[in-house]
Design brief:
365 residues, alpha/beta, Rossmann fold, 2 domains, six-stranded mixed beta sheet, six-stranded parallel beta sheet, 12 strands, 46% helix, binds nicotinamide-adenine-dinucleotide
């Protein structure tokens, strides 16, 4: 007689992981009719509703998707807190291939799940999503940002993001050189996409000597058509003799390999998650004497831009708010140097201090 093979009980650590990382709520969403499988992560709502984009990605497992949503939603808490916004941190992931499985019904079903949270989570665009997708989600819920301009949204956030990165870079220059002029500085911008090109515009205008790299020829062509820059090979960018390295492509470029090669005094760019390992490489950067402007602080122009949609959008106000990134970067670099802690840790402490202070006033009548 055949006996059913019993598999070992799978260890479920979701609640423990939530406790360790400080999450308030995780919402698992499933709908057979549309094939929707999604997870909404609400990390912290002390400062306001948890805002963060929805990522659609072909995750290898549910566990991988959960790990991503836990990490990303926590990151949003710190980003909004340090940017001085009254927003908490959240993020959502839809499990699936955005090129094959994304359709109106699936997105609208997801919108209904977002709506069921009554505004505790507000969604936006992320990898695998675009403004058209936000329109479908908007058909089912008002708790969505990043809508196209013709629907009253804030449109492309990259100009504000790039301006904030520029402010963070200037503050870093002031910290290292005693003045914030970038005139004559040798700056390598990795990635000539949306953020990269707007940033290059500011740098060229100020008279910096700009090196650029990209993996796509058309992006490089577009960039060299617009600006006077020197193109370098994608790999060679780490070996240049430069003053400032500005990662504006993908994350993880501050790692064991590149930190042995980089010869710059400052790292300041728009890419998310630049430190491959936050604690290990954050410390290595400090030990090498490189001044690192934390990514989640200086690229917060994107969330500043989107935040404007909640209170009525005004591009000038968003730009003005992004200017504060200069002051906060100075404060963070000062703490990092005085306490000999990585600037990443210093920035997280500044963000946490604000959350704790506001939590206290929320408790008083
Ligand atoms: P984008 O896709 O427009 O540009 C990225 C560019 O990097 C592309 O041109 C791509 O070809 C290039 N690239 C990829 N790998 C590369 C490599 N190894 N070497 C050189 N170039 C490479 O994206 P974006 O909107 O400009 O965003 C850039 C980064 O900034 C991302 O990490 C994004 O998460 C982050 N960010 C963007 C915003 C925003 O407002 N767009 C806000 C916050 C953070």
């Amino acid at each position: 007689m055949e006996t059913a093979v019993k598999s070992a009980p799978v260890e479920l650590n979701v609640l423990n992981d939530m406790k360790t990382m400080g999450h308030e709520q995780i919402v698992f969403c499933q709908d057979e009719a549309t094939g929707l499988k999604a997870i909404i992560g609400i990390h912290n709502t002390v400062l306001g509703p948890a805002l963060g984009g929805t990522r659609m990605w072909h995750y290898a497992s549910d566990a991988e998707a959960l790990e991503d949503v836990l990490r990303l939603s926590r990151g949003m808490t710190y980003k909004s807190a340090i940017a001085g916004l009254n927003l908490g941190g959240g993020k959502a992931v839809i499990i699936g291939d955005s090129r094959k499985q994304k359709n109106e019904a699936l997105l609208r079903r997801f919108g209904k799940f977002v709506d069921s949270l009554g505004g505790k989570y507000i969604t936006a665009e992320d990898v695998g999503m675009n403004t058209r997708d936000m329109e479908f989600i908007h058909m089912e819920t008002h708790h969505v940002t990043g809508l196209p301009e013709y629907l009253g949204g804030s449109g492309d956030p990259s100009p504000v993001t790039a301006y904030g990165v520029y402010m963070g870079m200037k503050a870093s220059a002031k910290f290292v050189y005693g003045n914030d002029s970038l005139h004559g500085k040798k700056i390598a911008v990795q990635g000539t996409g949306h953020v990269g090109q707007y940033l290059i515009g500011h740098l060229v205008n100020e008279g910096a000597k700009v090196y650029v790299s990209d993996i796509f020829e058309d992006r490089i062509k577009e960039c060299t058509y617009k600006f006077k820059v020197e193109v370098v090979d994608a790999e060679a960018i780490y070996d240049l003799d430069i003053d400032i390295y500005a990662p504006c492509a993908l994350g993880g470029t501050l790692n064991d390999d590149t930190l042995n090669r980089l010869k710059c005094a400052i790292v300041a760019g728009g890419a998310n998650n630049q430190l491959k390992n936050e604690s290990v490489h954050g410390k290595r950067v400090l030990e090498k004497g490189i001044v690192y402007a934390p990514d989640f602080l200086i690229n917060s122009g994107g969330i500043i831009n989107v935040y404007g949609e909640i209170a009525g959008y005004d591009k000038q106000a968003a730009m003005k708010k992004a200017e504060f990134i200069y002051e906060v970067t100075q404060e963070v670099l000062k703490i990092s140097s005085e306490q000999q802690i990585s600037s990443q840790v210093a920035a997280m402490q500044v963000a946490q201090r604000r959350i704790d202070a506001i939590a206290r006033i929320n408790q008083t009548l």
